[in-house]
Design goal:
The chain is mainly α. The protein has four helices and no strands. Helix 3 packs antiparallel against helix 4. The longest helix is centred in the middle third of the chain and has 21 residues. The mean pLDDT is 84.
Length: 106
Amino acid sequence: MRSRDKAAVSALRATLAALDNAEAVPVAEAATRGLALEQSPVGVGATEAARRELSECTVADIVRAEAAERLEAASQLTAPAHADRVARLRAEAAVLLRFLDGHPSA
């Protein structure tokens, strides 16, 4: 990727973060409560949990939602002073939608 394509970099970073968040395992309320020291897990990786695996359809839905979010934000900015921001949001959405070419919508 060209270093000067800031819209693509911004869109991809945000979307990768959204995908990373979607892979996170929900924490049970009981797990958030403190344990007595003698009940604490011990050892390397004792508190690690495997990440969820996302299906291709779920990944496409997340990418589609990120693009829609940018297009919605662009449509909300109507003042001429926001023209640069609108152009950037639309460019970011276009980058994300290019990844969905050929992937049917759910």
